[in-house]
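Quick entry between incubations.
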Amino acid sequence: MSDVAPFAPGDPATAIATRGVVRDFTAGQQTIRVLHGIDLDVRAGELTYLVGESGSGKTTLISIMCGILWPTEGEVRLFGTDIYNLSDNELVDFRLRNVGFIFQQYNLIPAIDAAANAAVPLIAQGVDRGEARARATELLAALNIGDQADKLPSQLSGGQQQRVAIARALVHQPRLIVCDEPTAALDARSGRRVMDLLREVALADDRSVIIVTHDNRIFDLADRILVLEDGRITHDGRDMPKDY
Amino acid sequence: MVWIAIRMLTGDATKFYGLLFGIAFSTLLITQQLTIFVNLIERGASGVYNVPSADVWVMDPVSRTTDVNLPMPSTALDRVRSVPGVEWAVPHLRAAASVRTKEGDLEGVSVIGVDDATLIGLPRRMASGSTKVLEQPDAVVIDDVGTTRFFPEGYDPVGERLELNDQRAVIMGVADAIPSFTSQVTLYTRYSRALNFVPGTRNRLSFVLVGAAPGVDAKTLATRITDETGLRARTRDEFARDGIDFIIENTGIPLNFGITVMLGFIVGVAIVGLTFSLFIRDNIKQFGALKAIGVNNAKIRRMVAAQAAMVGSIGYGLGVLGTVAFIWSFSSNPTFKGFYIPWQVPLISLAAVTIILTLTGWIALRNVLRTEPAAVFR
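Done. Structure below.
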């Protein structure tokens, strides 16, 4: 388990800091502890993998780290902000401006074209629709699917939809990108290409990328791998443990 | 975000048209049935509406409507005329009779005897001929319902002879009248001639129609007539209302139409509720993703409200247009003659549609609001 220092809010390299994060779920009369006091620092400029078996608590941890699930106990700071000390609306707004999401199923809106899908965070921020679309189209071009901007998600291949989802996660220039199994639906070659793309366009000195994955084909591409077992971080390193 | 909400809605053509159909059908059913109901029960007052010049109707105390009346002795006319504030008072006879048609069948008609001198009691407008025709021997004026009931379509009945209670009557004109509640054929003739057409008991005077003197309020005059003669006197509006109330109280029409309107509402709730719920369910992942990205509940509410408003406004418009088309397409049918859509009816159906959409939208929205953003990772 990592030996973490106390909070250093002034340290610009600390993207995410969690201290004593506990999460319980109640099922009927029973309370199940899914996370057991997670202490963790995630640095900016790194591609961090969160790896673990199903039920290990990685989805719960990533949800807490990006501000969409309240911890039962503990503290989470995103770029120095104690996010669970914010009001509901402040937290939603914080997410809108600072977090980008890439979902396993992409969750693109089927009725709007690729450019509009990629522009959603900007539109939600209140940016003019034309300007938002222009910025999204520019990003789609950078992701080599500029010519697909006017197509509906159903007219795109899985890989192209993935790129639209990446564009949506990046268009508003958030400081944290959260990816849920980004390569699960792709073959090995496409998966590596997506990871290369993420490293190329998503990673920056002031931005952190966290990826939840099972995919051992891409473990070698990580800057840091955190292994979660039964709600505890059991490994923190550049490579996967040999016995995993 | 509203734009995205609208695109989400219209992008799913099946559900979009399903929602439109539900709202339009509900609106049509509610608006059309309420329109027919209102127009139909207003026919209970058609006898009053057809005589706009009478300020006060005087009758036997037991009489209730133009069709449910007990004749008075002819002396009632003089008693009414003697009341201060009465500018004029004329006799008015309404009775049932039978006409033998050319085919030999007997058809029930309503005979209305209007004042011999002034012809007060006739409808204001004539569809064919002039009111002067009643000065000719055996002359009667038939209402336009009668022309379609007794004669082929497009046939001019002027000059046709009728066997009215075994007496000869000649149609000399067609009145542009509001049909009665039962759409029974009505024949207008002079009062003195009506007495011959409709033999009966000693008392024959159905009503005395009264015009108020200038400056005299109809309500005050009616009260005064009742006080001084012991007869029942009703202002024009009161007597019209009596006719409508009689139908409401004595027929199952309000219940039947009420059931249909309620069914329209229930069908609307069922179709729209089901389709809206399916639409939201199909898009719950997208809504969850939007919530995770940072779209707050207020914006989600506005999105669902925009979807409901769009479906509601188009569906409601189609439903009202459907009702207008229905009324327009049947306007040439005498049964539906003069039917109109009272301004209150579209407002009532708008309220119903608003309730349907608020109810179903709220149920659908609850699912969206309850969705944890974290669910998108599961």
